[in-house]
Design brief:
single chain, 168 residues, alpha+beta, Nuclear Transport Factor 2, Chain: A, six-stranded mixed beta sheet, 4 helices, 6 strands, globular, DUF4440 domain-containing protein, signal
Length: 168
């Protein structure tokens, strides 16, 4: 009698495990694989540089602007690519001065020795831009911005409202 009970218990346990395993499998196609994005060292460095630049422009912080923006800096805009915006003019009429959140997303960085090229999406209150920044190496992790290419993203929805503190 004891042998039959153990055998029956083992069969019942196996059936229970197989039905539980079947219930855990989703019906239909397996879910799509999700890409895990890990921030690289360069992405971290230039994410910090981009936000430092935004903060310096908004604060009118000449010391940090001089550290981050080269004397020979210029911006090229997609709407008028043949008309460079020189450093002084860019600092006076900068769209980064607009109140509200400035958000840098989708940042990619390419290290080219003395140059680093950072491309990203910048969302401002009323604007959504694709930016390519060319940074020149000044030291180990020190860079200065020498050229910015900016283009509005067509058909993009305006950025989300600013956080309560108005920061990124």
């Amino acid at each position: 009698m004891m042998r039959v009970d153990c055998w029956a218990l083992a069969v019942a346990g196996a059936l229970l495990l197989s039905s539980a395993a079947g219930a855990a499998e989703p019906a239909g196609d397996p879910p799509p694989r999700q890409r895990v994005v890990t921030m690289t060292r360069f992405v971290k460095i230039f994410n910090d540089h981009e936000y430092d630049l935004i903060d310096a422009v908004r604060a009118g912080d000449k010391g940090n602007l001089d550290r981050l923006v080269a004397a020979d800096f210029e911006q090229r805009n997609a709407a008028s690519p043949a008309v460079p915006v020189p450093r002084d003019e860019w600092m006076q009429a900068n769209e980064l001065k607009a109140p509200g959140q400035a958000l840098v997303t989708e940042l990619a960085v390419h290290d080219r020795g003395e140059l680093a090229i950072a491309s990203f999406r910048m969302k401002l209150k009323e604007r959504d831009l694709f930016i390519v920044d060319v940074w020149r190496r000044k030291g180990a992790d020190a860079y200065e911005l020498i050229t910015r290419y900016a283009s509005p993203i067509p058909g993009a929805a305006p950025a989300a409202p600013a956080a309560p503190n108005g920061k990124r």
